[in-house]
Amino acid sequence: MRASLSSSSSVLRDLPVLLVAVVWGSSFLAVQQVAEPGTVVAMLVLRFGVVLPLLGLTAWRALRKLSRAEWLGGAALGLVLSGIFLLETYGAVHTSATNAGLIISLAMVLTLLGESALSRTAPPRAFLAAAGLAVLGVALLTGDGGLRPPTLGDLLVLGAALVRSGYVLAMARTRAVRDTDMLAVTWVQLAVATAVFAVVALAGGPAPWTVALSYGAGQWAWLLHLSLFCTLFAFFVQMWAVRATSPSRVSLLLGTEPLWAAVFGITVAGNRMGPLALLGGALVLVATEWGRRTAPTPRPAEGDEERESELDVVGSSPEAAPV
Length: 323
Known about the structure:
The chain is mostly helical. It has one domain. It is built from 15 helices and no strands. Helix 4 runs parallel beside helix 7. It starts with a helix and ends in a 9-residue tail after the last helix.
């Protein structure tokens, strides 16, 4: 009886995290419903314009306690974050939702390779094999099983994966924010990223309010989905999950995101993939999980074990989340 209750409790703890993976998987499809190449920046202003006031109310007390160095550190990370969202979102409107979701999953492998390089420790051979398998999978996926070069959208999403991996490494090593309240530093980063989007929007393209007025009910529903579920809900679930379950368990559940991206892309968006492209997608999923399981375990400094556990989970939350 006690084992049954424990199992039920475990499922209840896992379900919200799994839902985050599902909504993240749907985010690429959502972007395609609310943005075109000419309205990407305006849409990003709207998306985070909805989130910032809500997150700011929650983080107000913590924001008032931030030091100058913490504000500057968060702002620097916010500039990098804006690049990630621009690359991911432009990429998502130039490729299929399925391709975008699978390619961005390479960020995990790239991050671990970067971690090994920075720590000057050779990764296990099994991990290198997983990385090679992932590259092969992406080649098959983006070429649809042929020898065609990847599309512009594929390259943009791959660039986002590279920048995201650098962002996560920087997030873990920026002393100014290592011991800062995560809620506050996330608000600073999103605020800076939104300011960047607003400036870029003024430089060209339609104004955010013009795009907002052009949206119908369906597009507003997708935009609110991106704002409230893919960003706000995802962040709070991960903050809760840090304390409710183990980082490795959360990482495993969030690792199903590309699977959900493929499910939404094929079933809702009608993406079509040839046999070899399907094989490539499967190889990316297998290689990403294999790489996660065989990656070298980082050695945190004394007294940093708890902080490292939070970074494992929160390091890829809304600020580094999929579009």
